[in-house]
Structures are given as structure tokens and as C-alpha cells.
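User: I'm putting together a small comparison set for a docking exercise, and I want a reference complex before I start. The sequence is below, and the ligand is glutamic acid. Could you produce the 3D structure with the ligand included, as C-alpha cells?
Assistant: Of course. I'll restate your input first, then give the C-alpha cells for the complex.
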Amino acid sequence: MDAMSKTIRVRIAPSPTGSVHLGLCRTALFNWAYARRFGGQFVLRIEDTDHDRNTQVSEQAILAALDWLGLDYDEGPGKGGPFAPYRQSERVARHLEMAQALLASGHAYRDFSTPEALDAWRAEQEARKQRVAYRGSDRDLDPEVSRRRAEAGEPFATRFRIPAGETRFEDLIRGQVTIPHEEIDDWVMVRRGGEAPTYNFVVVCDDLDMQITHVFRGEEHLVNTPKQLLVYAACGKPEPAFAHLPLMLGTDRKKLSKRTGDTSLPDYQAKGYPKEAIFNFLALQGWSLDGETDVFDRAKFVEHFDIRDVSKAGAVFDPAKFLWMAGEYLRRETVEELAQHVAPFAIEAQLMTAEAIEARRPWFLRVVASVQDRMSLYSDFPAWVAHFFQPDDAIVYDEKAEKGARKREGRAEILLAFAEALEAGRLGHTAADMAGATKAWLEDRGAKLADLFQPLRLALTGMGGGPDLFETIELLSTPSSLARIRAGAARLA
Ligand code: GLU
């Protein structure tokens, strides 16, 4: 099939089980970008056939994740489309009808083997230590006999009849892939009992019915693709193009898992990673713009993305780089944007209420601006500004910072003298004035900058480092600053 001659239709087909994994987000991102770049459609289908493990909650979480990431789909649950329904569990009648058709054409057969017989076969395989693909003993049963036994109520599984030979296909990322059929079991299409079709079968039914032209999914599905290709052939239908995205690996080069860090989107949302940083970082998991540019926006991604440029080597997910990228994006935000993003963290840390933020908005914006350069994540905000909300006479001192400040000779005296000059208005009132005047003041006293700054920062903020001190004084107000400085002089004496 010449895929390019038709409208491109890609899809993601997540199973709503558990939390939304970053791997799913990356798969969604690549499918979405491909559709957007080449004027195609991006379909969402929920593969909820494994009833026990599916929850309404995780389906909602998938929809919310796509929405949050800005990966709008053209057809899917809640949105509808020409191939509805988009929930696999609502399509089972159609799957069973297709299974019937494959039984009738001989591409599938009824396997009446009991679970005990199958267990015995498996045990025998293990004992022999040599894996031979399963070929059911009922494979060559006379079709008429098979039909009569089924009609008499004998339970059976519907299995795909793997033909002799091999399957070859051109993976858009990996190139030519060849799988000898002797490695593939006559796999179960519909489980014993008759009502429960399996993934490898229904995925083809649905992709066919939904006219999917390109299937891009994780490398873990590479083993499934030959089975699925054989179903397309059995149905006499052209197959879509396939590409298998490289595994996302941890820095230990093992499959990304909880063991080495967070793997789900909500984990990163909760930590306050900027959305665009998550988007950009996921885009780099197996793809690159030009081999060197790490930071690019979604428009650039869509403009340049092609599945054929995805690398087949595993994509290493480096948390340190992710954190760096978060900071890059956080610093590009306007103060208003950043204030909106950090406000929930300030509220959660009980530093301010939403109403207080609103009432003191100009002040809040300045506080946010003062620490913008210091943060990588929105969740860093409370730690940088907590001191603004502590009582002036009980600022929480960082242990190391306090040790450092205590090493300064004359620390209490210089703090008191500085407080006096500040109170008398001799240092001016704006941050810029204070910076200049304090320098001159220190020169007059023959003191070094650090002699004052180290104890002063500790007294005002409790920290060893942070934003501009004069800006802090302005934001605290002079009376509050004076109270802190004097309390600091007493504590450090
Ligand atoms: N339900 C499968 C999964 O979540 C879909 C795989 C596919 O895209 O075919 O991995």
C-alpha cells in the first residue's frame, strides 16, 4: 500500500490500567506530531477489553493527560467520529463477527483442548528445554466435526492458524524485520468460553475498521506485529505501515521503571515540571531536531518531526537533563505565568491563601520575580520564599548558613550598625539606592561585603544564598527587616 496516497490516520490505543506512563505520553506525542505535520488524523481508542484491570478512573486520567499536554485528538471517546465507538469493549460484537469469518475461511480453528491438556503441553516444553511453537491437536480437525462439537456445547478457544513460511515487514524505524513462522504459536484469538477476544486480534479488527494507515507504538509490541500482520493477510486487507519506538531507558540503561525514578505524568505534574518542558523532553526520547539543539517549542517539533528520523537505539531518560530543561522553561515564563503556576504550591505549603495572593498581587509578582532565576520546578517556590511568612523574631536558620555566619568577626555589631543606618534612612529606600549606599557605607567602615552580607542574609531569610538582599528588604518592608536584623544580631552575638 502506498500510505502517502491516503489521508494519514494514526492512533494510540492505550489500556486504561493504572497511572499514565511517560511511555504512553511519548507514543501519543509522536503520533500526534505525525498527524499534524502531514495533515492526518489522530485517533484515540481505549483498549479496555481486559475488564479486570480497567478502571473508569484511569480512562479519565488518559483523557486528562492528553488534554493537559495539548495533544488534541480528532476522534475518540467523548469526541466521537465516523468510526465510533472508540472504546474497544463496545466493539466486541464486531470482533466476534470477524472471528467467525476467519473460522469460516479456515484461517482460524477451534481448539477444544482442556486447560489441563495445555498445562501438560507447557510442562513438557519446559522439561525438554526447547521451545516449539504451539500447534493445537484440533488444528486439522474436520471443519464439520469441529462445528458440530461446538454446537453441542463443548468449550473451545479460537486460535489463529499460523501458516508455514515467514513474515517480513519494513519497520519505518528499524528497517527490514523478518520472523520465521515456526517461532509463532497458533495464538488464541478468542478465549475459551467464546466471548473474550484477545489483544492481538481485536487490535487488527479495530485498526482495520478505523482505517488506520500507520501504527506507531512501543518496541515492546514488536513481537506482536507478525501475528497482527498475518491477520491482515488472512482478512485479505492491506496492512498499515508500522514503526516501533525505542524503549525509554533509565540512566542504568534498563527499561525505565519505578525502580530508578518516577515514570508517570502525574508524578512530574505534581513536582511542578513546566508543561512545555515535559513536552520538549518527551520529544527528545528517541528523536532529535538536529543532533544538538535540545530546547525547541512544539511548533518546531511538528514542523520537523518524521517517524523515519526516530532512532532505533534505546532512548535514555536522564532525570538531571530533565530538571535542567524544566529550569530553562521556567525561566522563560513571564512573571504573570510563573505566578499562576507557583501559586498552588504556595497555597499547598500554607504560605498564603488564594485570597491573600489576590489581595497582594503586585507584591506576590515581585516575590515571584525575585526567585525566578533560582528555581527549576514550580515546587521549588515555597522553600525560596517561606521566610517571608515566618515571624520576624523566629526565622528558621539553615544550619550550615548559620555556621558560616558565626565565623564572621563582629557579626552582631555590623548588623546593629546596619540596622541603625537603615532605620535612619541613610541607605535610601529602594533596592537600587540601598545597594550603592551600602557599598559606600561598608567602605567607610573598612568592612568587607561578606562581613555584612552573610549574617544579614541569614537574619533576613535564614538561608545561605538567595536573591538580591536589597530586593528582599524592600519586599519585607523596612520595619520587618529591622526586626529580623536585630533579632539576628541577638541570636548571633
Ligand atoms: N493496548 C496496547 C497498549 O496499551 C496498544 C498497543 C498498540 O498500540 O497496538 O500497549
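Residues 22-37 form the longest helix (16 residues). The first strand starts at residue 9 and ends at 12.
User: Thanks, that's exactly what I needed.
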